[in-house]
Every structure is written in C-alpha cells, then in structure tokens.
DNA sequence: CAACCCACCTGACTGC
DNA sequence: TGCAGTCAGGTGGGTT
C-alpha cells in the first residue's frame, strides 16, 4: 500500500498531533510482525519520553524520542503492505481496540495506534546514534526528492545492470521509496516501458526519468497519496488520498491511455504487475 | 555480487 | 451462499 508519498502523508499528519507529546503507556498486543517487535526494550526505554521529531527515510518512519539525559532513541515504523498509524484523541471516547491493532502508545490525551492486517510492517527501536547503520536504513538509496538524486546518478548507477527499469527502482538501493505504483507512473511520464533493461536507458532518458520520479512523488504527496479501491491506505487521521484519480497507467489495464487512447497493457513478472501504454512508451 | 524466486499474511474480489 | 482461486502498496533471504 504505502510508498513514499503515502508514508510522507502519514508523517505529516502525525507530526501535527504528536510532536512534543510525552509517552505515558505502551501496550503491545502481538510482536510477530515482519520482524519481532522488541517489546521489552520499548517498555523500558519509551515511557516518559517526549517525541522530539518525526522523520522519514524512504518508506521508513523515524520517531525520535528523548527522555531526560539519556541518549535519544528512534522508533522505526514500516507500514509494509497494509500498515497504518492512526492518532486518535481519547477525549473522543474512542479507546476500543481496532481489528489488527498491534501496538498502542498512549501520549497525553492522544493514542498512537499501529494497525496492520497482513503484518508485513514492523516496529523497531534503535539509538539515534546508530540509525544510519540500522538494517532498515543502511541499504537505502538517496532520497528521490533531494538534490542528491538526479539523472547523472541514475545513469551512473544503472550501467551494466540486467534488471528491468521497474524492478531496479523497486529495490530502492539507488533511490529510496519508489514502489510499484510510482515506478510505473514515472516510466509512463518518461516515455519508457517499465520492463526495459535499465542499462539501456540513455543519458537523456535517465535525466527525464529522474525528473519524472520527483514530479510524480511530489504530486502524489500534494494529493495525500493513493488510496486504491480497497480503501486500505489512509493517513494518520484516517483520511484517504486522491492521487489514484491521477494515475495514467497503474491499475488501468484494458482502459484507454489518457494521452493517446491506445489500450493500456499489463505485464507480469515476479508476481507483480507492470502497466504501460504501448504507443506512448518505448 | 547479480539475478531470480519465494515466502511472509490477511482480506477483497471473481467466477463457478 | 459458499468456496476455491487470484491478487494486492514491500522486502529480505535463499538459491543459482
């Protein structure tokens, strides 16, 4: 569900209500998610701590907590395919546990809940000083919306690679946070087919693709992310995104290309669908 | 190391 | 109405 724009939207919505609040209590219902939740460490380290910052690295949410003079801790949250963070005000009388709610941080008058039906998501903890060497962070490529990411980096990083463009973007090793939706959309806007070998992108095509990745991610953030028909993705206040209405190819197999009216095609590799317009994309 | 395949899990949807 | 099959936003581990 959640790619960079969805995670960024969640980050912003949570930041508004949770920043500066103090953790009163933590309840962990089950620990067997993608990685075991370190329940004991969380219980030891976080009660009484204040949320000092909420950042994002790729698709990872980084909650920075500080308590007294002890070293700052980071709680790392990954949404996997179906994860949600939801902030709810207790004054509203809303304290019942939701289905698939696994973790709840009680913060002043707010509850921060982690809900994840498929349990591909994760909650982890590390010292701020070791964040960059954490397994969830250390192999991430550059932030696509930063100046570090450009056509040159993409060109240099893709020579001699036998992978398809879409699959290369999904690995996140060169550029972080791009998932299946936005990889497909960026390929469309760049005029390249997602299944083309990435090594055969010309320098100008890399220039174009890097630019379109930035554009599509920014537009999607502006639209609050993509909420597909199952309604799975919502932000930290429970609001849906609307970027799904601006998809040009993703999930549109068999429909008319919005640019040239050809039929949008779907190809499958590795059990994942890629979408493209055979006329607009070469 | 790179490329590939797969498992991990639940729920929604499709077709019989 | 039910039931089997298919599919889904991610990603790391194992195997060639």
Computed CA radius of gyration, to the nearest angstrom? 20 Å
Q: On the 0-100 scale, what is the average pLDDT? A: 95
The largest beta-sheet arranges its strands as 1-6-7-5
Number of strands: 10
Sketch the major β-sheet.
4 strands, antiparallel
In which range does the helix fraction lie? 25-40%
Poorly predicted ranges: none
From N to C, what is the helix and strand string? HEHEEEEEEEHHHHHEE
Helical stretch tally: 7
Shape: globular
Give the N-terminus to C-terminus distance in angstroms. Answer: 28 Å
Class based on secondary structure composition and strand pairing: alpha+beta
Beta percentage is 15-25%
Name the features:
DNA-binding; 10 strands; four-stranded antiparallel sheet; single chain; 282 residues; 25% helix; alpha+beta
Structural write-up:
With 282 residues, the protein is of the alpha+beta class. It contains seven helices and ten strands. The chain has helices at 4-18, 39-45, 135-138, 151-157, 165-171, 180-190, 203-222, and strands at 23-28, 50-57, 60-66, 73-78, 84-89, 101-107, 110-115, 122-127, 265-269, 272-276. A four-stranded antiparallel sheet has the order 1-6-7-5, covered by helices on one side. The protein is globular. 43% of the residues are buried. The mean pLDDT is 95. The structure holds a DNA duplex (16 and 16 nucleotides).
């Amino acid at each position: 569900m959640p790619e960079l724009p969805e995670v960024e939207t969640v980050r912003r919505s949570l930041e508004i209500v949770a920043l500066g609040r103090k953790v009163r209590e933590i309840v962990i219902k089950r620990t067997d998610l993608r990685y075991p939740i370190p329940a004991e460490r969380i219980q030891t380290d976080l009660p009484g701590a204040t949320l000092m910052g909420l950042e994002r690295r790729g698709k990872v949410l980084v909650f920075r907590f500080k308590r007294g003079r002890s070293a700052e801790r980071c709680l790392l949250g990954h949404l996997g395919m179906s994860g949600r963070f939801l902030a709810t005000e207790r004054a509203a009388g809303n304290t019942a546990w939701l289905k698939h709610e696994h973790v709840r941080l009680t913060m002043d008058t707010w509850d921060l809940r982690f809900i994840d039906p498929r349990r591909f998501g994760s909650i982890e903890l590390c010292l701020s000083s070791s964040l960059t060497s954490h397994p969830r962070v250390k192999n991430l490529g550059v932030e696509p919306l930063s100046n570090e990411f450009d056509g040159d980096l993409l060109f240099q990083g893709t020579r001699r690679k036998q992978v398809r463009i879409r699959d290369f973007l999904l690995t996140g090793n060169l550029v972080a946070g791009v998932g299946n939706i936005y990889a497909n959309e960026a390929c469309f806007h760049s005029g390249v087919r997602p299944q083309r070998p990435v090594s055969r992108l010309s320098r100008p095509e890399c220039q174009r693709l890097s630019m379109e990745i930035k554009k599509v991610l920014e537009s999607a953030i502006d639209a609050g992310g993509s909420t597909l028909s199952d309604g799975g993705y919502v932000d930290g206040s429970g609001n849906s995104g609307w970027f799904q209405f601006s998809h040009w190819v993703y999930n549109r197999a068999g429909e008319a290309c919005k640019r040239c009216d050809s039929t949008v095609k779907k190809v499958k590799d590795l059990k994942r669908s890629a979408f493209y317009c055979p006329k607009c994309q070469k």
